[in-house]
Amino acid sequence: MKAWSRAQFLVRGLAFLKQTERMTRFDKQSSENRYNPSELEPEWQKRWEQLGLNRTPEPSETRSENFFALSMFPYPSGNLHMGHVRNYVITDVIARQQRLKGKKVLHPMGWDAFGLPAENAANERGVDPADWTIQNIEQMRVQLKKLGLSIDWDREISTCDPSFYQWTQWLFLQFFAAGLAYQKEANVNWDPIDKTVLANEQVNSEGRSWRSGALVEKRKLKQWFLRITDFADDLLTDLDGLNGWPERVCTMQANWIGRSRGAQFSFKLEKGGKELNKPDLNVDVFTTRPDTIYGVTYVVLAPEHPLVAKLTTKQQQESVKSFQEEVAAKSELERMAEDQDKKGVALGGTVVHPLTGKLIPVWIADYVLPDYGTGAVMGVPAHDQRDYSFAKKYNLAIQNVILKAGNAANHDPNQAFTELGILENSENFNGLEGEQAKQAIISKAEEEGFGIGKTTYRLRDWLISRQRYWGCPIPVIHCNICGVVPVPVEKLPVKLPTRGEPLAIIPCPTCGRDAKPETDTMDTFMCSSWYYLRYTDSENKDLPFAKITASKWLPVDQYVGGVEHAILHLLYSRFFTKALAKKDLISFNEPFKHLLTQGMVQAITFRNPKTEKYIAPSQVLDISNPLDPIDGTLLEVYYEKMSKSKYNGVDPGVVIDKYGADTARMFILFKAPPEKDLEWDDADVEGQFRFLQRIWRLCQSAKEQNSEIQLNLNNAFGELNAKEKNIRRAVHIAIKAISEDLSGEELQFNTAISELMKLCNTLTTHLEEANENVAGEAIAALLILLAPFAPHLADELWMQLGGVNSVHQQKWPIEDEKALITDTITIILQINGKVRDNLHVAPDIDADTLKKLALESDASKKWLEGTAPKRIIVVPGKLINLVS
Predict the structure, then answer these.
(1) How far apart are the C-alpha atoms of 582 and 591, rounded to whole Å?
(2) H or E element: which one contains 853?
(3) Do 294 and 424 contact (CB within 8 A), yes or no?
(4) DSSP conformation class of 555
(5) At what angle do helices 772-786 and 791-800 cross, to 10 degrees?
(6) Which end of the chain is more exposed for a tag (fewer CB within 10 A), N or C?
(7) Dihedral-angle region of residue 877 (phi above 0 means left; psi in -120 to 50 means alpha; beta otherwise)
(8) 752: pLDDT confidence band, cut at 50, 70 and 90?
(9) For position 794, what pLDDT does the model report?
(10) Which of 711, 708, 658, 649 is closest to 686 using CA atoms?
(11) Hey, CA dihedral for 380, 383, 385, 391, is it positive or negative?
(12) Percent of the chain beyond pLDDT 70?
């Protein structure tokens, strides 16, 4: 430790006493002038509303001068949770700063109000889903307003309002007219608990419903679909241009779309159990390895494939039927599991190999699914591990067609050889290798007409039918004469009937005969796939939005929401945007320019490892030795996402009532970077409350000490002394750092608040050393920089100190490069690599002068003991090291 001289001790001691006196003076302020958020925050919220500060201005004709800040709209559960708080506060900070930077800002809110949760909750309570939903919306709106969000509530939308869902129906009809919406019978995912179908994206990796958790069943039903697969290539390719999106979200979407390049080959049916009326009837298969076609020794169909009946011989009918029933009872997950034994049955029928002319047996197997690829695969056991296992089990032929070459020594002879290599046993293609072999065989197939090069996708068309009441009605009718007929646009909206009443028979708009309305409702993601467009033109009664108006605001500049929507909502929204752009209804191709996926809010959780039950923190008597109050078991303790079922939730209302909305906002932004999970800690909340109190005291002290202080970022400063220059430097360092933290691809609210803390500390210590102009600039900058984070406190202090208008009507400060220039810099002096002193020198000091100062220093004389150093190492602007 460096020893202090008596003079240094006295200087430091006096400074400490002076600081203590200042802090004591702050603490002795009368209770009438203390920071009281519960009083000032509601008043400022009323005043902002009266002033219309949050209303959306008319957009500029220049797109770059407008800014659309949007949070994913919530499902109206009735209760605001900390995940909501984090989402909406993040977006609010962005919106407020953009206004201060002079942008015209659209920052709206709405409600994703249809869906199963509301219907189930209403059914449990014996009330109408509409009444339940509206009540929840009113409750949550009040809770959100307490956060001081700068939302334009005049543009509020709710997806269950006919004035909104008539336009969802209008868009459906546009898709229907373009051939993008269609109805077909298909094997669909059926949720046995919620009694409705699910899109593939709504079934998790374990084969369970994303909503109810039930194991999904397969049923064959007539359902409505949207042709999202028509846009599969664009959806995948355009991910490369989403530079403002998290890489992991783009990767998740790319994997879900799942593009595979290869070939589709046709194997002609040779014989089977039933009369083959069409001599050109084929089994079509897709493969990513066309180079292995000479290794095909059998073909496998899904048990549900339409050609199974034609290829099943009389002798095999009973076995095939029994196997089909067995497979029907399995989930898709069970059928595709890698560790499951693959089962199959021979049909008895055969197909002709398109190149060799040999007859190949046809089987059905549980691992082939009807909706993936063509529902048929070519069995190449020598070069596919799954096919190899199947062939070994059923004693099917194995034909190697790829030389193992240098890999042979390392290859297990009991495994399939799956690498690319040189072809053998492939007639005229022998000796070709890798991609060259693939392309040569595709060319041969296309030339002879038994195959084509093809790209396929894992993505399937979007199933939008739901067998539920509480959803947007599908605007079509079913006529026995005319078939499916769209409801005329002028008849929209097709409203939901009164709960429990049967649907009325209505006249067909084409022939006038009695027809039945569609009973299915739409997937709720239909509404959320375009709602951001409605915000731009929410009062339009003739169209869902005007193209010219939407183009002034969209795409959304900053979108904030959970990563759990990476596949469902975000993918569907991109599809909607591309489909609407293709119809020339909008002028952009992607909905969201920048995407921030905020982390979860977690809290301490207590769990009994024996019973697996969660214990409420209030029941844990000793946190250091947490025991189950019932059986005394030592509890597991860890952080987990806040949830009612885990008893670890924190009510935002309680936090706001105790500390104020500004404290809740500051904590939620400061505790962790926005994309990371946040661990709730009451002590950290109190820490932010104390920080806001320090800002309050600083401003009260500034007002008391200097009645001439004027809040102005453009004060004339004249000649400044060293202390005043240091204060201005601290102010402009903060301006520069916070501006950088709130711009760019990675928003860093936590480090921005750290810079506010550093600036507050500097001003608390040194502000009284500044003249009124320097002090006025410093406090003005502090409050404007604080305004997006703690808007109520910033406006209150701005008013108290005589600021003009609201702090939210000011201009975002810009750093003064001259103020950032320092008169001196600190150079570390090392002797033989150890720090011995600091040298305070001019920033432009040359190396020779620096060496001279170092050699003449007291530290050099002491530690070198009069001997000249052998080497002098200079790191410009940082250190000098004298090596003896």
Answers:
(1) 14
(2) helix 847-856
(3) no
(4) S
(5) 160
(6) N
(7) left
(8) very high
(9) 98
(10) 658
(11) positive
(12) 94
Nearest to 257 by CA among 232, 279, 234: 232
Give the DSSP letter string of 482-549.
TEEEEPPGGG---PPPPTTPPPPPEE-TTT-SEEEE---EE-THHHHTTHHHHHTTTT-SSSS--HHH
Q: How far apart are the first and last CA of the chain?
A: 23
User: Tens of pLDDT along 608-631?
Assistant: 888 888 988 888 888 889 998 888
What are the pLDDT digits (tens) for 471-523? 999 999 999 999 999 999 999 999 998 877 777 788 999 999 999 999 999 99
DSSP letter string over 231-287?
GHHHHHHGGGG-TBS-HHHHHHHHHHH-EEEEEEEEEEEEE-SS----TT-EEEEEE
131-139 CB contacts, 8 Å cutoff, 24+ apart: 133/76, 133/158, 133/160, 135/78, 136/76, 136/77, 136/78, 137/76, 137/111, 137/113, 139/78, 139/79
Tokens for 401, please give them.
């067609």
Residues 749, 737 contacting (CB under 8 angstroms): no
CB-based contact 99:105 (threshold 8 Å): yes
Residue percentage of the chain with pLDDT more than 90:
66
Mean pLDDT of the chain: 89
Is the predicted pLDDT of residue 2 greater than 50, yes or no? no
Per the structure block, which two tokens stand in for 483? 């078939």
At 549-582, the pLDDT tens digits run 999 999 999 999 988 888 889 999 999 999 999 9
Phi-psi region of 82 (alpha: psi -120 to 50; beta: other; left: phi over 0): alpha
Q: Does the pLDDT value for residue 16 go beyond 60?
A: no
Partners of 882 in beta bridges: 831, 872
Q: How far from 397 is each of 306, 350, 363, 400, CA to CA, in Å?
A: 26, 14, 13, 10
- Label residues 761-778 b or e (16+ Cβ within 10 Å = b): ebbbebbeebbebbbbbb
Residue recorded with tokens 């995407």: 595
Find out whether 428 and 393 touch, Cβ atoms under 8 Å: no
Report pLDDT digits (tens) over 753-777.
999 999 999 999 999 888 889 999 9
The more confidently predicted of residues 331 and 184 is 184
Strands (E), 670-773: 678-679
What is the DSSP pairing of strand 298-301 with strand 506-507? unpaired
Helices (H), 71-178: 82-100, 116-125, 129-145, 162-177
Residue among 103, 44, 39 nearest 68 (CA):
103
Q: What is the dihedral of CA 525, 530, 536, 542, to 10 degrees?
A: -110
Supply 851's token pair. 């060496």
- Burial class of residue 413, CB neighbours in 10 A (0-12, 13-18, 19+): exposed
